[in-house]
Amino acid sequence: MIDPALPCIDLHRHLDGNVRLQTILDLGREHGVALPGDTVETLRPHVEVNGVMPDLVSWLDRLHWMTAVLGDVDACRRVARENVEDAKRDGLDYVELRFSPYFQALPNGLDPAAVVEAVVAGVAEGRAATGLPVKLIGILSRTFGPEACSVELAALLTQREHITALDLAGDERSWPAELFERHFAAGRAAGWAVTVHAGEAGSAQSIWSAIRLLGATRIGHGLRAIDDPALMEYLSEHRIGIEMNLTSNVQTNSVPSFIEHPFKRFLSNGLLVTINTDDPVISGIDWRHECEVAAPLAGLTPADVSAAQRNAVEIAFLTRAEKETLLLAARR
Question: Which CATH class is domain 9-331?
Answer without folding.
Answer: alpha beta
